Amino acid sequence: MSGKNMGELYISLKRYIRKLTENRIPASIVLLVPSVIIFYLSLGQQVWHNIMTKDMVDYATNTFGNWSIIFLMITPITILIGAYYLIDTIKAKKYFKENIDINSKVMFRRNLEELEKAATKLPDRYWDLLEEKKKKFKL
To answer: What's the predicted TM-score (pTM) here?
Structure first.
């Protein structure tokens, strides 16, 4: 691959990652919810035969077949990833909202690095708010 193609690939990959960051909460929910449902049905088929209703066990067996053991191994990982990104994004949003309204330049400068980290995990409008605040304090 030539250097020009690699550069274009890098730029398109960077744009794609930015779009994922813009939609981090919905993407993590889309990963988390189906993973929990598939994990529950797979676990029910393999372990909870006596607890689940016959219809649910039959549905899981017809849907997953012998794949339920593989789903039992994969879905905990996807559940952890989805939960991590959801919680991390919510924490970043909360931290950003609490600290962007600081009126002290010294306190703002002290929190600037953490605010920048939080802004990179959030949509672009948060980065724009941070830039406006930096201009206000002439940083």
So the answer is: 0.70
